[in-house]
Amino acid sequence: MTLDLLRHGEPEGGRLYRGNLLDDPLTKKGWQQMQASTNGKYWDFIATSPMIRCQAFAQHLSQTLHIEMQVFESLKEIGFGDWQGQNVQQIGQKTVNKFKQNPVDNLPLGAENLHTFQARVLDAFMQITQDTMQSVLIVAHAGVIRVIKSHLLHLPIEKMFTMEVISGSCEQFKI
């Protein structure tokens, strides 16, 4: 099976920790980023987060390319607790760096447990990949993509935030 992981493009409001509560739509640039990453590609199935910054583009691809699409609640981004709606400057670069180096022990106050997040994402991932489709596109968030990549690359979940996932990027795996 070929698996493509597409991160949503730039949302309105700039670079923030949106998490699973803020649901800003994509900017024009965000749409262009995603279109550039998917241009000329085709899949048997599209799975998407229910968040508008993912689902709107997934719906567009589904309708344009006549591909079956399904929304998975479990593909929502991690809940960032007190950080939701804030940018790095508001949180503090040192605090963000500590989190990225050791997210298990440095989660923001009120944030979703990292292992709980991993379990829900991988549960959806297993549902999506259990069929014998040739190619699947998952449209999701940086955190969701990091969990799946960590799983596929056999990396500990504690290292997931050391992986960069660029807005609008699409990465392919053979599984």
Automatic annotation (TrEMBL):
Pfam families named in the record: His_Phos_1
GO molecular function: phosphatase activity
SMART domains registered for this protein in UniProt: PGAM
Stored InterPro entries: His_Pase_superF_clade-1, His_PPase_superfam, PGM_Phosphatase
Gene3D superfamilies the UniProt entry points to: Phosphoglycerate mutase-like
One cellular component (GO) term of this entry: cytoplasm
CDD domains, A to Z: HP_PGM_like (cd07067)
PANTHER family, per database record: BROAD-SPECIFICITY PHOSPHATASE YOR283W-RELATED (PTHR48100), HISTIDINE PHOSPHATASE FAMILY PROTEIN-RELATED (PTHR48100:SF1)
Protein name: Fructose-2,6-bisphosphatase
Organism lineage: Bacteria, Pseudomonadati, Pseudomonadota, Gammaproteobacteria, sulfur-oxidizing symbionts
